[in-house]
Design brief:
alpha+beta, four-stranded antiparallel β-sheet, 13 helices, disordered N terminus
Length: 297
């Protein structure tokens, strides 16, 4: 397998030679382009929203597979590995934007993280739209496409405004998906969110439970107790799972050697990483790479 990293265009290259921080396309346009990288597991350094209006197939995201369903919206965060395998002639829309696009236009990172739509450690939940939710979202999406086709004063500001409204509507649609008897947000769930947010930033540099407990001003025992109650897993389990997820991503999309991956994930001794990977996955790093590539190539 050639280095798939080189095949993946950066967002600034997706619109010819003109650097852009935002792009929207129909799924028909994406299909017609037939980009080679779309047919292998790949990752982007920007946010992706895929609204499947009508299609059939499978969406693989971070080594889990989800059936493609009509009127479903998928949110893929930066660095996630994904592969969309669908039958010909899909109908839908794709939005791509960088974190800088939002910040430039006055939408802070806290807004996006607060929505809970994009990747957070090991969480991924597409939104299956109700018929009553479609018209509003379609209106916002139509406005984004209309603005993108123009070359008018404050075009990017207008796109950012419509995108923000689209994201808010998605958040409300997601809230409607939640069961009416879902437990209310409490101090424990807040601790879980804070832990996962910190873990996402520090998993490669910090592998010890004590670090995360200290940063959250908690004792390790209390942090473990909260996480077990809310997630069914200990802090150590969640830390290890996040490291393994990244190792699997690197094995899939990059040509990193085991040694390079070990160093990138904060292991001073590659043999320690090799043992860690095998203990957690029941297979070696090289074997995993060979197996995952056989699946898609």
């Amino acid at each position: 397998m050639k280095n798939s990293r080189a095949k993946i265009p950066q967002l600034a290259l997706l619109s010819g030679d003109k650097p852009v921080n935002f792009l929207c396309k129909t799924m028909q346009q994406v299909e017609e382009e037939e980009n080679e990288h779309l047919h292998i597991p790949h990752r982007h350094h920007y946010y992706t929203i895929i609204w499947i209006e009508k299609a059939a197939g499978t969406h693989h995201i971070d080594f889990k597979s989800y059936p493609v369903r009509n009127q479903t919206i998928y949110f893929i965060g930066p660095e996630q590995v994904h592969l969309l395998q669908i039958k010909p002639h899909p109908k839908g829309r794709v939005f791509l934007f960088t974190p800088e696009f939002l910040e430039i236009h006055g939408i802070p990172p806290q807004f996006l993280s607060g929505l809970g739509l994009f990747f957070a450690c090991d969480e991924f939940t597409p939104i299956r739209l109700k018929q009553s939710q479609i018209p509003l979202l379609k209106n916002y999406a139509d406005q984004i496409f209309l603005e993108s086709e123009k070359d008018e004063y404050l075009q990017q500001e207008a796109i950012a405004t419509w995108l923000k409204l689209f994201l808010i509507a998605c958040k409300r649609s997601k809230a409607e998906m939640a069961a009416l008897d879902a437990p209310p947000q409490n101090a424990r769930s807040k601790t879980v969110r804070e832990f996962k947010s910190l873990l996402e930033k520090k998993f490669a540099a910090q592998h010890k439970v004590h670090y995360y407990a200290s940063e959250l001003h908690l004792t390790p025992n209390y942090l473990n107790e909260v996480l077990r109650q809310e997630t069914g897993q200990s802090a150590k389990d969640l830390i290890q799972n996040r490291i393994i997820l990244e190792a699997r991503r690197l094995a899939t999309y990059s040509e990193n050697s085991l040694k390079e991956t070990a160093y990138q994930l904060g292991f001073d001794d590659p043999s320690h990483f090799s043992k860690f990977f095998r203990n957690c996955t029941r297979t070696g790093y090289s074997n995993f790479r060979q197996q995952i590539r056989k699946i898609y190539l």
